[in-house]
Structure formats: C-alpha cells, structure tokens
C-alpha cells in the first residue's frame, strides 16, 4: 500500500488505490454491520472516513483519541458529506487511549479555558490544530514577504547583555550550579533573554540595506492581560537610508496585507473556524494620525476612560481600541509620540513644536497595538547626549560607534506575531494562539 497523509487521501487523486494512513481517531460510530471511524493526522481539518466491514479483533480498543494505522482501498463515498472513504482491510491500534481518562470527550465542544489546562494534549482538538496550521502558514507568509522584497534574515541572539527597550522587563540568564560551587560568573557581564532584536539589526543595517529577524522575545511583564506573554514571537525589520516614517509604515502595511491575504487563501478551511476581525481587502486607514491628534480625538469623545488622556501620557489599550473604532474599525497608524515616552534610540523630531520622537505604532481591531517602530537617532551628538542623560554612554559605546563609522538614517519596527494572529482570527486571549504560553505564574511543561 501507498502511505498517504489524510489530506492527500481526501484530495481524491488516489481513488482506487490501496493505501495506508496513520493518525488519531476523532470519532467512532458503530452500526449494525459496519464500524465508521474518522481519522485525523493534522494534515488538514478534515478527517478521513474509514469503514470497517469486518469484525476487527481490536475493535474494543478503537476509541476516541487512540492512534491507528489503517490499510485498505480508497473509494468514492456514497455519502455527500465526504468525497472519499477508506474501506479498511486492516486496522492496527498503535497506541491505546482510555476514553474515561482522556480529558476531551467525543462530540463535546469544550471551552477554550478548559482546553488551555492541557497544553500537552490541546493539539488533539480541531480548533487548536487549525490554529497551529494557520500559525505555521503565517510564519511562512512572513518569511516569504521578506525574501520577495530583498531582506536578509539575521539570527539575532536570544541571550544578550542589552536592554533594548529600557523598560526593566528583563529575565536574567545564569547557569544552574551546585549550591556551594563558587565558580566565577559564566558571562563576565549580566546577561538576559532578549526583549527585542532591534539593536542587533541596527548593527547589520550598517552593512545591509534591509534586514529582518523573526524569533522569540521575552518580557518579565507582570501582566495577566489577554495580549501579553512572557515569551512571544516578534517580527522585526530594519531599513537603511530611510527618510521618513512613511518608509516604515509602507512596509508594515505591506506585510500585514500580504500575509493576511496568503493566510486567508491558503488556510480557508481552518480560518473558517474562527471569528475573523479582518476580511479580505482589509484596508489600513490611509489617513493615520499623529499622537497629538489622537489625544484630541480621545479628549473630544464622550467615553469615560480609566487612564488619563493628557498630552504626554502613554496610550492604553482602552484608548487604542477607541481610536481603531473611531477610524471605522480598520488598522490605523499613530505617529510622533512624546519624546519622553520612547526609548533612547528613537529619533528626535527637532522641527516639531512639541517635543516628539519619530515613532509609529500600528493599532488594529481586537488587540490595539500590533507594531511599534521608529526612525533611529543617527546623529552622534544627539544620541550621545541622550545616552549620557540616562547614564548609558559606556554600556552603549558600541552603539555610538555605529554613528561614528558610516552612520545613515535608518529605522525599523517590531510586529507581535501572536497579536497578529489574534487580530486576523479574532482570538480573544493571546494564550490561545501560541503552542506553549508562558506568563506570570505559569510555565507549564
Ligand atoms: O513596541 P515594542 O516594545 O517594540 C520593540 O520592542 C522595538 N524594539 C521593535 C523594533 O522597533 N524593532 O514591541 C513590538 C511589538 C508590540 O507592538 C506588540 O505587538 C508586541 O511586540 N509585544 C508583545 N506581544 C506579546 N506579549 C508581550 N508582552 C508583548 N510586548 C510587546
Ligand atoms: Mg510598543
């Protein structure tokens, strides 16, 4: 027999063939003469219908969740519901599954909160396996966007000695040593899990015109919110010789649109299980607004916000949500934030009456902030002064070097990959779009 994946068997191109499939039983339906099984192997949302017309010696072991290997004849199905079915001549139970102990019950729709309690088993549910396929395709779409557009991928380090965002949300990295082992420090400097690959990308933008990285980033955020994780994936791009924020917003918009188009087309069946916030076409607000305009809009609104909306205060989720709604529930850019709200690397908008930085956030329906980016301060004197003000000029002498040796105007941004998935699929909680969520008080598995 030819070994096929379920998706290949269902495609119908192997009708009449003697095939073998391997997977997990998603449903069991005994009838008078026949036994109907549905077997799934993660290759598609669809399961393959198996029809067993004989009395299988292992029949009592064929339960929801067990692993099987089935060989038989692939035929056209008389039933409209599925195009093909496999008439089994041999069914072998590879791994048994006691349905009384298995946390998921056949035909039951479990709540996401319940499913989340079983990070080691939740890939066995339809909804989560769909999510994982979509996540995989969205990853491919993002890499493909960058490849098509001439970006070089850089593997930025996970362990680093810098705190790019300066927000004090670092996880320290130290070797695990026996208690009274008075070894020297492993690294001679304090080391952390990276909060962003930006500074390493900035190094590379001294030699490449377009670079990107896409990997895990870490923040010791003491937040139980529905859009924060301690470990999340970030897509970061850095562009050399950028003159304006529009150079950045163009790329952000392009990635958002092209990846979303790809995912909606490539994973139509899986995506249909979710309540999308984004429909094909998904406009990004062409207007955009400055931070000052955003503050005006918030102050003119009749809504009572919990957090202050004065000029100089950071925009909170409630504000971001309001602004997105105000623009017709489509993604919107907010630019030129107060200088003091932004990290040391953000470029000073010296020509503005208010003291702002050339920074931009992309706000999207469902989640609020999806991307954060800025032009970087490329002027040596201004950057040195800023670093001196925060007492970091020694730690960042290498960063100042980048402005000494062939400095160029440049800028970039980071896109939170889980928030992107939340946005396009309408998933309320960020813990439901990552295989193994890590957040405060929780590091299961
Ligand atoms: O706005 P952030 O902090 O920007 C940076 O880290 C820049 N250094 C990126 C750059 O310019 N290269 O983070 C970027 C995005 C946010 O807009 C948000 O979508 C996501 O990362 N993000 C988180 N996602 C999940 N959990 C968290 N704790 C997150 N913190 C930020
Ligand atoms: Mg941000």
Strand count, sense and barrel status of the largest sheet are:
8 strands, mixed
Shape: elongated
- How many DSSP H or I helices? 11
The helical percent reads 25-40%
SS content category: alpha+beta
- CA(first)-CA(last) distance: 38 Å
Give the distinct bound molecules.
4-amino-1,4-dioxobutan-2-aminium adenosine-5'-monophosphate, magnesium ion
Which range does the strand content fall in?
A: 15-25%
Order of helices and strands: EHEEEEEHHEEEHEEHHEHHEEEHHEH
Strand order of the largest sheet: 7-10-11-16-15-14-13-12
Rg over CA atoms: 26 Å
Average pLDDT rating: 93
Unreliable runs? none
Please count the beta strands (DSSP E, at least 2 residues each). 16
Main attributes?
16 strands; five-stranded mixed beta barrel; elongated; 25% helix; binds 4-amino-1,4-dioxobutan-2-aminium adenosine-5'-monophosphate; EC 6.1.1.22; ATP binding; alpha+beta; binds magnesium ion; 24% strand; 445 residues
């Amino acid at each position: 027999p030819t070994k096929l994946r379920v998706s290949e068997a269902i495609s119908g191109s192997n009708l009449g063939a003697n095939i073998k499939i391997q997977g997990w039983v998603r449903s069991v339906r005994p009838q008078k003469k026949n036994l109907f099984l549905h077997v799934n192997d993660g290759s598609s949302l669809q399961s393959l219908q198996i029809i067993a017309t004989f009395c299988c010696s292992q029949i009592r072991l064929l339960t929801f969740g067990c692993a099987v290997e089935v060989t038989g004849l692939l035929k056209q199905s008389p039933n409209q519901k599925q195009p093909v079915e496999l008439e089994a001549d041999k069914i072998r139970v590879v791994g048994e599954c006691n349905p009384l102990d298995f946390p998921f019950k056949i035909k039951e729709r479990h709540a996401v909160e319940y499913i989340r309690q079983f990070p080691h088993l939740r890939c066995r549910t339809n909804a989560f396996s769909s999510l994982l396929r979509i996540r995989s395709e969205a990853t491919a779409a993002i890499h493909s966007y960058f490849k098509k557009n001439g970006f070089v991928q850089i593997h930025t380090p996970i362990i680093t000695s810098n705190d790019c965002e300066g927000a004090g949300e670092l996880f320290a990295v130290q070797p695990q040593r026996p208690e009274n082992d008075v070894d020297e420090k492993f690294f001679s400097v304090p080391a952390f899990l990276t909060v962003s690959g930006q500074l390493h990308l900035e190094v590379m933008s001294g030699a490449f015109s377009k670079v990107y990285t896409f990997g895990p980033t870490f923040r010791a955020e003491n937040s139980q919110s529905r859009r924060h994780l301690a470990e999340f994936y970030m897509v970061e791009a850095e562009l050399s010789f950028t003159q304006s924020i529009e150079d950045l917003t163009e790329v952000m918009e392009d990635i958002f649109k092209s990846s979303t188009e790809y995912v909606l087309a490539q994973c139509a069946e899986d995506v249909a299980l979710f309540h999308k916030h984004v429909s094909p076409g998904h406009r990004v607000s062409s207007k955009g607004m400055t931070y000052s305009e955003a503050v005006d809009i918030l102050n003119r609104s009749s809504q009572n916000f919990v957090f202050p909306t004065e000029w100089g205060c950071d925009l909170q989720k409630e504000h971001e949500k309001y602004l997105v709604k105000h623009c017709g529930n489509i993604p919107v850019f907010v630019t030129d934030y107060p200088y003091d709200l932004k990290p040391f690397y953000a470029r000073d908008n010296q020509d503005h009456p208010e003291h702002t930085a050339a920074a931009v956030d992309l706000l999207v329906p469902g989640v609020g902030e999806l991307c954060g980016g800025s032009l970087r301060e490329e002027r040596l004197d201004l950057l040195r002064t800023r670093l001196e003000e925060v007492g970091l000029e020694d730690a960042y002498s290498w960063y100042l070097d980048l402005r000494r040796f062939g400095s160029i105007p440049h800028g970039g941004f980071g896109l939170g990959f889980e928030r992107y998935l939340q946005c396009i699929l309408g998933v309320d909680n960020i813990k439901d779009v990552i295989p193994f969520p890590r957040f405060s008080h929780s590091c299961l598995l």
